[in-house]
Amino acid sequence: MRESMSIWFFAGVLFLIYGVIITATGFWELANPPAHPPILFNLHPSIWWGGMMAIAGLIYTIRFWPRVRR
Amino acid sequence: MPFEHTHRLFSHPQALAFFQGKSLAHLNGVDILVIAVYFAIVIFIGFYLKGATHTSEDFFMAGREMTAWIAGLSFVSANLGSLELMGWAGSAYQYGILATHWYWIGAIPAMLFLGIVMMPFYYISKTHSVPGYLHLRYGDGARALSAVSFAFMTVLMSGINMYSMAIVMKVVLGWNLNFSIWVSSITVALYVALGGLRSAIFNEVLQFLLIWLGALLVPILGLIEVGGWSNLRQQILTNLGRSDYVHLWSTLGHFHDNPMGIHWTGIVFGLGLVISFGYWTTDFLVVQRVLSAHNLRAARMAPIIGAGFKMAVPFIVILPGLLALSVLPFHLVGETQAVATGQHSYNEVLPLMLVRYCSPGLLGLGVTALIAGFMSGMAGNVSAFSTVWTYDIYGAFLNKKATDQHYVAMGRWCTFIGVLISVGTAYLVQHAASIMDYVQALFSFFIAPLFGTVILGMLWKRATKAAGFWGLLSGTLTAIGLWAWVHNDPSALRYVALSTDAKTMAEDMYRALWSWLVCVIVTVVVSLMTKPKPEAELEGLVYGASKIPEERDANWYQKPIVWAGVIAVLFVILNVIFW
Predict the structure, then answer these.
(1) CATH class of the domain defined by B26-440
(2) Fewer CB under 10 Å: which end of chain A, C or N?
């Protein structure tokens, strides 16, 4: 039996998934720049914002992973 | 030059789409994936938590086992609906930094007061709702009046929220209004009906985090674009030719000195004392989240934690509105004019800024934040409606002796019915001239007098059963009467809001103040004319007649009063900085 899932576990999983998706999109855009980029596209917010989300999500997912009850 | 950045947007395909009458942005596969992941997780949470929801205490009060942090985040999130996000960003564009008053003086003192003074009475009385507290303190008359008015206001609020969200989806993405309304509301109905308040709270915490993640990039990138806060102030001054958009207090000396047309007495007494205290301490939508806390200390800390986060919300709501004054190359207009001319309205400022800075993926996240805001607001309204209907109307007057399982089933059905009524309301409010003014009017009808009744009931042993009912009724009728008076004769505004220069926002503030005063005066007078309750019956309900359980915190820094003090000091500092 495992512990019930904490809200922070859900948050971690969601952040991790979003972080991976957005960072990957950022790198893809780096190689294939859009024809009509948004303002300040040169700062590549997708990469650093997505990266921060992925790291935070990974930490929370591991920290709040439902443990096996002893 | 007023709009020197015009070329930037005109060089943008999304800007061209605007002028061609199309949607502002088109989501690509990545954006759709981001939104789909969100929907999948919130529905999964509903199904997952259904297994832990057996009794009415589980369904309506989340088993009273939430920590201070979860209850606190949920407390703020339930209020941070799409209306709150987009409406106040629009108000910041329209009125400048004055809109921040609704987040600071219009929230922080009241939230701290709830945590420090009022929460012990709500918590130790073990009430399920605010009308439930009125039942214990004043009897069935006050309970019935407040339960019915709350249920009415809740579904209206929910409909307004839904309308705001659907409009954004239409403007930004070109989505059909009906599609947005039905997909989102069915999702909310599903996860709230399955897991009850626990599911609503879990999702609200998640939604709160998402709102920050999705919206935070706008002020960060916006400040980079304009070159910092000082440059932003300067550009607003240059663009508008007036400095009153960037001052919180210094322009409130007279009604005609500020864009809101309000006097500081309206902000301090109408908003800061009456509307704010009324909303944050007696609106069951937010109080319900705190009542789910697992002990008294958590229940006291939850609003204080919420106050800390609430104080930061202007960064993602007000600042984008101010940035838009500097960087958007066109004027935004009121809702009525927008509908007539095809221009963008004030309420669309946040999505416009999202589209300005966000590429695929981030745009999906931003849109998800707006959807999350809508869902948290709607789930809050629907779960509170379901609780008040089941406990304070159905269980109190229509079917007193049903089983616990019957009430849980009623709660689940109510969730669906509440959503259906909200959907109907959303279609009705489409014709409201200004969403925010409408909501302010609603607050002053019901919330301001309710605060008078609750606070006298908690702090004054002499307040009687009859006084509670008549005070509440007279205050509510005063608010409706004043509104109808100005509605039929606009020149009456000079009496209600004390000046011919007053505008709608000022009217709302003063109407709330008068209705609260009438409620308090009538409650006091009727109390002195009627027989008080014996003190023994007031145990656990009233200050001076109740023994508050002692809290034994291991360290000084764990005490709620210490954290309330920290938040209060920060609040003062922020007001001085932006004076």
Answers:
(1) mainly alpha
(2) C
R_g of chain B, CA atoms, integer Å: 23
End-to-end CA distance of chain B: 27
Q: Name residue B338's beta-bridge partners.
A: none
* Alpha carbons B387 and B414: distance in angstroms, whole number: 9
Rounded to whole angstroms, the Cα distance separating B394 from B482 reads 32
pLDDT beyond 50 at B20? no
pLDDT tens for each residue of A35-61: 888 888 889 999 999 999 999 999 999
What is the interface pTM, i.e. ipTM, of the complex?
0.94
Cα B28 to Cα B364: distance, rounded to the nearest angstrom = 9
**Chain B residues lying within 8 Å of A3, measured CB to CB:** none
Interval B450-495: pLDDT, tens: 999 999 999 999 999 999 999 999 999 999 999 889 888 888 888 8
Q: Searching chain A, which residue's CA lies closest to the CA of residue B204?
A: A7
Q: What's the helix, strand, coil split of chain A in %, to 5?
A: 65, 5, 30
Q: Is A7 in Cβ contact with B221 (below 8 Å)?
A: no
Query: Rounded CA gap, A33 and B436, in Å?
Result: 40
Calculate mean pLDDT across residues B396-417.
Answer: 92
Rg (CA), chain A: 16
State how far the Cα of B466 lies from the Cα of A60, in Å rounded to an integer.
Answer: 53
Cα separation, A2 vs B121, whole angstroms: 37
Per CB-CB distance under 8 Å, the chain B contacts of A38 are 12, 355-359
CB neighbours of B503 closer than 8 A, spacing ≥ 6?
B255, B260, B261, B262
